[in-house]
Amino acid sequence: MVEGADDAARAPDAVVDGPVTKHAQLRAILLERVTSQWAPHQAIPSERELMAEFGVSRATVREAIRQLVEEQRLYRVHGKGTFVAADRVESRLHLASFTDDMRRRGLVPSTLVRHVRLVPAPVEVTAALGLAPDEEVWEIERLRLAGGAPMALERGFYSNRLLPDLGGIELTGSLYSIMALGYGLRIDGAEQTVWSELATRSTADPLGVGVGAPLMVFRRTSRASGRPVEYVTSWYRGDRYQIHMSLSGT
Asked: Between the N and C ends of the chain, which has fewer C-beta atoms within 10 Å?
C-alpha cells in the first residue's frame, strides 16, 4: 500500500471548520491528488490558487505544503514552484555506469554535456590516477537525467595520455562503454566514498533544486586491469535517489 493511502482515501472535498485542523484537511486533499491525479514532476497549483479554491489562509496552504515536502511527496524548485515528487530510484552500490544502472530500473537515461576541456591535473586527481607531474587530463562535466528529470551532476577526470581525443567523441552515452570499445580499458574495479551535503548554487541550479537541498555525493576512483583511469564525483538529488545495502552477521 502506498504510504498515506488511508489518509488519501478519507480526504474530504473541502476544508471546513471542525476538530481537524484546516492545514491537516488540506494536506489530505493534496495527498489524494498526488497519489491519484497529478503526475510525477507536475507543478501543483500556486499558493494563491489553493487559497482561492479552498477558502483558506496563506499560512494554512504553506503548512500543508511544508508537511508534504518533508514527507517527500512534493518538492520545491526555487523560483519555479512546487512539484509532485517521483518515487526514488534505488541503488545497490554495484559497479555500473549511470546509463546501464537507469536502464535496469526501467528508466530512460539521457545526458547533457555541460563542458569538456583539457586542463592540468589537480593535485588530488594526480594522486588518485597516478599521473606524472603537470600531466593533462580531460575534465568532463555532465548532467545525468532519468526519465527526463535531473538525477545527478557528474564531474570526472580522465588521463589524456590514456584516452587521447576523448574530447572529440560523443559523450552523451556510457563513458565505460567508450573506454572499453574505443580504448580497450574495461572498468573492473573501483574505490568509492559516499557522503551527504547541502546543495550550493553551482550544484542546485543544474539539478533543479533549491540551495540547501540535500544531496548524496559519490566519489569514485575506477580501475581497468588494476590501473586507475577515472576520478569522478557525482552529486545525486536526495529526493530522487536512495541506497540499498544487504548486511549479514559474522
From this structure: C
As a whole number of angstroms, the distance between CA 150 and CA 95 comes to 21
| Residue keyed to cell 559474522 | 250
Are residues 122 and 226 both part of a single domain? yes
Q: Is residue 113 located within the same domain as residue 205?
A: yes
In angstroms, the CA 114 to CA 134 distance is 25
Listed in sequence order, the residues at least 6 apart from 48 whose beta carbon sits closer than 8 Å to its beta carbon are none
Secondary structure of residue 99 in the 3-state scheme: helix
**CA 99 to the chain's CA centroid:** 14
What pLDDT is attached to residue 101? 67
Print the domain residue range for 117: 89-243
Asked if 116 and 138 touch (Cβ cutoff 8 Å), the reply is yes
Amino acid in the structure at residue 72: Q
Which pTM does this prediction carry?
A: 0.62
- CA end-to-end distance (rounded Å), the chain: 34
State whether the Cα torsion 239-204-41-151 is positive or negative. Answer: negative
Query: Using CA atoms, how far apart are residues 18 and 237, in angstroms rounded to an integer?
Result: 39
- Averaged pLDDT for residues 178-206: 91
